[in-house]
Amino acid sequence: SPSDESQPLHSLTDGLQDPPPILNENEKQVDWTRSYHGLSSTPFTPEQAAILQEPLELDDIEIKPDGIVYLPEIKYRRKLNRAFGPGGWGLAPRGETIVTGKLVTREYGLVCGGRLVSIARGEQQYFDPDGIPTATEGCKSNALMRCCKDLGIASELWDPRFIRKFMKEMAKETLVEHVVTKRRRKHFMRKDDELKYPLKEV
């Protein structure tokens, strides 16, 4: 019968329909979807600030093939764990996930020690609807990176002079060829890295 027929699956490209839960106003907890509780109320301890603002180790910086420098997400998480302890910080969504034809985006708030310290919107491109779930994780990672900028973590990566110096001293630009398709393109990488199959230097 028609009532026994399964409902059609929801298309992810229509949006994820995942609004944050609405809290009961009588519950004694902070609604991080709207609250700015604790923002700028007090600075971090000198010990925490020293950890957050430590100079970057050059060995930790990676380079994308298009020349963009970045710090792997796990490095941000390790820094937050050192400063606040595992469980002492978290990312709270502040709205629904928005899915366009090529982009996933969502706003997050970084909460440390029970207070809001930064808000950022994460973004991640995708090229196929099957990639939307993975893109939502990339979106969250992007928001974390942007929030950490306010705390001083890896702030060098937002400094054009630092980036130019790093690229001059630690990076190289080569012309590579895909051994299967024979397509050639420019490729950036660290000087201490090696090309991996299916790429070879021309």
User: Given this structure, which CATH class of the largest domain is correct?
Assistant: Alpha Beta
What is the alpha-carbon Rg in Å? 21 Å
Q: Identify low-pLDDT runs.
A: none
Order of helices and strands: HEEHEEEEHHEEE
Total strand segments? 9
Which percent band covers the strand fraction?
A: 15-25%
- Write the CATH architecture name of the largest domain: 2-Layer Sandwich
- What is the multimeric organization of the chains shown? single chain
The major beta sheet can be summarized as: 4 strands, antiparallel
What is the share of helical residues? 10-25%
Task: Name the shape in a single word.
Answer: flat
Provide the residue-averaged pLDDT. Answer: 90
Instruction: Indicate the CATH topology of the largest domain.
Output: Enolase-like, domain 1
Total helical segments = 4
| First-residue to last-residue Cα separation | 64 Å
What structural class do the secondary elements suggest? alpha+beta
Number of domains: 2
Biased composition (Polar residues): 1-10
Family: Belongs to the MGM101 family.
Region (Disordered): 1-25
Protein name: Mitochondrial genome maintenance protein MGM101
Which key terms come to mind for this protein?
Enolase-like, domain 1, 25% strand, DNA-binding, DNA repair, Mgm101, flat, 202 residues, 4 helices, mitochondrion nucleoid, alpha+beta, mitochondrion
Give structural notes.
- The protein is flat, with a radius of gyration of 21 Å.
- The protein is built from four helices and nine strands.
- It folds into two domains: 2-158, Enolase-like, domain 1 (2-Layer Sandwich), CATH 3.30.390; 160-202, no CATH class.
- It has helices at residues 46-52, 73-84, 132-151, 160-170; strands spanning 62-63, 69-70, 89-93, 98-99, 103-112, 115-125, 171-178, 184-190, 199-201.
- The strands form three sheets. Strands 3, 4, 5 and 6 form a four-stranded antiparallel beta sheet that branches. Strands 8-7-9 form a three-stranded antiparallel beta sheet.
- The protein is of the alpha+beta class and 202 residues long.
- 25% of the residues lie in helices and 25% in strands.
- The protein starts with 45 loop residues before the first helix and ends with a strand.
